Amino acid sequence: MKKTVAILLTSGSALLAGCGGEGSEARNSMAGTISNAPALAAYVGTWQTPCDGHERQVLVVALQADGSGALELTPATETYLKAGCSGPVLATETLSAKIGAVPDGVADIVIKLSGSDVAASVRIDKLTLSIPAYTFNVAGPGVEYVIHNDQQQRCTDHESGSTCVDDDGMHKAYTIAGGMVLSNNKLYTVVWNGSDYVPDTLYVKQ
User: Fold this and answer.
1) Helices in the chain by DSSP H: which ranges?
2) pTM above 0.70, yes or no
3) 14: which of 9, 44, 62, 140 fits an S-S bond (Cβ 3.0–4.6 Å)?
């Protein structure tokens, strides 16, 4: 089961958790412009990744209620009984806190958005992504709480075996730099790796 900050916060895992904390670009971005805020409304909705075995990531994007133009991201990972993400949902992994996404202008970059694409010039909406201290929560009819090698885990059995998530308790707050772009009715997230924006996750609208 993938860590759901992975949904927007790191390639295959979680942008926030995977990037090692708050970098200088991310800190500088907190003071960025919100001039592209109206354009961010195009991202509002419920998005999902292609199925990966028994799992599918879901990302709900909403405008923050304070009228600032910033986004609020709510990620989740669903685990299904059958491969191809069919049959009943056995477990849903969520975060205890929402991810804030503050607009920070735009950037024109050359990037290969997915494995089958050719590198092309795209304009991304730059974002400062932040989350307060949080925990991972896993709930559903197929979830069992176990201890394996002295590590507490929440495990889910499905037709191909089982997937487990370590219960690591509270995770510290993070702030990183990332971005989004829409192309051919698909939502792509990117993350700043210290020198370039690199592809993160592909979503299609539910």
Assistant:
1) 15-18, 24-29
2) yes
3) 9
pLDDT in tens, 193-204: 889 998 889 999
Residue type, 110: V
The token pair at 124 is 């991304």
d(CA 69, CA 24): 23
The span from the CA of 66 to the CA of 202, in Å, is 28
Question: Residue 21: CA atoms inside 13 Å, Cβ hemisphere, count?
Answer: 2
Helix, strand, or coil here: 15? helix
In Å, what is the CA distance from 195 to each residue of 19, 177, 191? 13, 11, 10
Judge whether 174 and 113 are in contact, CB under 8 Å. no
- State the amino acid at position 69 in one-letter form: G
Q: What is the pLDDT at residue 113?
A: 79
- C-alpha 21/C-alpha 119 separation (Å) is 28
Q: Which is higher by pLDDT, 67 or 160?
A: 160
Neighbour-count burial of 116, counting CB atoms closer than 10 A to its CB (0-12 exposed, 13-18 middle, 19+ buried): exposed
Return the ∠ at Cα 85 (arms to 62 and 206), rounded to 5°. Answer: 30
pLDDT at 33 over 50: no
